């Protein structure tokens, strides 16, 4: 009998007893992680005063205002003319740095400007600070939400909720705890764990499949963290190769920049890690549903073929993402006449190389780990399906079953001593009292 499932359902495919056994195994593995995460959040939660908000807003004050560009003049010291939004409606010249002018300024653009009398010596006292981007970003955010909801519907909505919850962990726990001087590695592991619980269970629901993927994600996270801790030390990475790192070091001198780099490497790979584990867990159950009598080794091998394709695509996805992020740095480094080896081992490039390699290794290791866990969990249903309980057409209903022979069929021994062979998935329908639909995944449980 063919198995046709309209929707992936590990509980249905495993049957009642198999699903119960799988839940017990997963609970024994995941519940300690959940408890440890909660304890970690409570113990490491930043208390008292933190450095957050300790510095004044650099673009707010009586000398700051917004304006709309009405003309691009190109005149040195008065590159644009803009209408002030201070209630006066005056049109004033504004100094704009040459790199901003070269990037392009359009009439109608909103900008934030600063009035300072000290700028009169070089031109207008009104100086460009930044563009106002509120409206375009809101439009883009709304468009993103609409596209996700239109394509993925409820699952997409829950994915957005999971994303927001994960980002809330970063904003209210991870960053404040790091700034308050908490142990960076522990803070990152606890924060990453909380992010994964929110992201996986809110987006995909609580089930055997998603819990299997979550467990595989934790294994990949552990590998990534251990490797990142070793690589940052072995490669003597300092984390002090960007302007933002130097600013951070000046305002928070107690923060170790190498530890912050390590935390960033761990967090950076979480999204791709969760992506591949969910895919692998789903692949195992789909393969088992399509071929319920396939040996476990064959299910694992088939799932790994899917995993290898995912590895191939995801590895270069990570590499391309990091290349895009570090593109200005790459261009600057390549201006110098130096060998390829010297270029790749330069501090600012080495950080990106380590980030890419560590995240990729953790991702690759998570795929066989998740596949193995999922394959072992479907083992219970195969063991159950090797037996059949069939009622005979005579009055006493006596039945004895024997394990399946080599081809997966079941040898039925009836009460009168006659033996009958039933092929895999076949049903008996040879008279009153015959078994009904015993090829379903819950046959023995019924």
What is the average of the pLDDT values?
A: 79
Largest sheet: 5 strands, antiparallel
Indicate the CATH class of the largest domain. Mainly Alpha
Give the domain tally. 3
Q: Count the helices. How many? A: 12
Which strands sit side by side, in order, in the main sheet?
3-2-1-4-5
Question: What is the number of strand segments?
Answer: 8
What is the C-alpha radius of gyration, as a whole number of Å? Answer: 31 Å
The coarse silhouette is elongated
Which architecture name of the largest domain does CATH use? Up-down Bundle
Per the CATH scheme, the topology name of the largest domain is: Multidrug efflux transporter AcrB transmembrane fold
Helix content: 55-70%
Q: Please report which band the strand proportion falls in: under 5%, 5-15%, 15-25%, 25-35%, 35-45% or over 45%.
A: 5-15%
Low-confidence stretches: 1-7, 381-446
* N-to-C CA distance: 18 Å
Structural class: alpha+beta
Element order, helices and strands? Answer: HEEEHEEHHHHHHHHHHEEE
What is this structure, in a nutshell?
It is built from 12 helices and 8 strands. It has 446 residues and is of the alpha+beta class. The chain has 3 domains: 244 residues, Multidrug efflux transporter AcrB transmembrane fold (Up-down Bundle), CATH 1.20.1640; 69 residues, Nucleic acid-binding proteins (OB fold (Dihydrolipoamide Acetyltransferase, E2P)), CATH 2.40.50; 60 residues, no CATH class.
């Amino acid at each position: 009998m063919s198995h046709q499932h309209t929707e992936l359902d590990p509980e249905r495919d495993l049957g009642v007893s198999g699903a119960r056994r799988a839940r017990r195994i997963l609970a024994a593995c995941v519940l300690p992680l959940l408890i440890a995460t909660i304890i970690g959040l409570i113990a490491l939660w930043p208390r008292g005063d933190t450095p957050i908000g300790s510095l004044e807003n650099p673009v707010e004050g009586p000398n700051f205002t917004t304006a709309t560009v009405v003309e691009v003049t190109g005149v040195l010291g008065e590159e644009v003319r803009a209408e002030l939004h201070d209630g006066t409606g005056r049109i004033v010249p504004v100094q704009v740095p040459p790199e901003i002018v070269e990037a392009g300024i359009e009439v109608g653009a909103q900008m934030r400007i600063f009035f300072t009398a000290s700028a009169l010596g070089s031109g207008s006292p009104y100086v460009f600070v930044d563009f106002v981007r509120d409206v375009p970003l809101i439009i883009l955010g709304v468009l993103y939400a609409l596209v996700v909801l239109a394509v993925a519907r409820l699952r997409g909505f829950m994915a957005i909720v999971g994303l927001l919850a994960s980002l809330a962990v970063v904003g209210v726990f991870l960053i404040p705890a790091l700034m308050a001087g908490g142990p960076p590695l522990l803070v990152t592991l606890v924060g990453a764990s909380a992010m994964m619980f929110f992201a996986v269970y809110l987006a995909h629901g609580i089930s055997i499949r998603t819990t299997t993927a979550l467990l595989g994600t934790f294994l990949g996270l552990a590998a990534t963290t251990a490797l990142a801790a070793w690589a940052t030390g072995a490669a003597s990475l300092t984390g002090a190769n960007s302007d933002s790192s130097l600013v951070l070091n000046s305002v928070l001198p107690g923060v170790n920049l190498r530890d912050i780099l390590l935390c960033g490497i761990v967090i950076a790979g979480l999204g791709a890690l969760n992506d591949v584990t969910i895919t692998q867990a789903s692949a195992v159950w789909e393969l088992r549903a399509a071929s319920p009598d396939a040996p476990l080794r064959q299910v694992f091998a088939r799932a790994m073929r899917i995993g290898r394709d995912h590895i191939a695509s995801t590895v270069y996805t990570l590499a391309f993402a990091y290349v895009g992020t570090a593109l200005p740095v790459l261009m600057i480094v390549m201006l110098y006449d130096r060998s390829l080896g010297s270029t790749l081992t330069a501090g600012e490039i080495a950080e990106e190389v380590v980030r890419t390699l560590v995240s990729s290794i953790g991702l690759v290791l998570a795929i066989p780990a998740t596949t193995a866990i999922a394959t072992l969990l479907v083992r219970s249903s195969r063991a159950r399906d090797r037996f059949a309980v069939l009622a005979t057409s005579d009055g006493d209903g006596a039945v004895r079953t024997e394990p399946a022979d080599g081809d997966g069929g079941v040898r039925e021994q009836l009460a009168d001593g006659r033996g009958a062979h039933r092929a895999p998935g076949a049903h008996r329908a040879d008279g009153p009292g015959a078994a009904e639909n015993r090829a379903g995944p819950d046959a023995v449980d019924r």
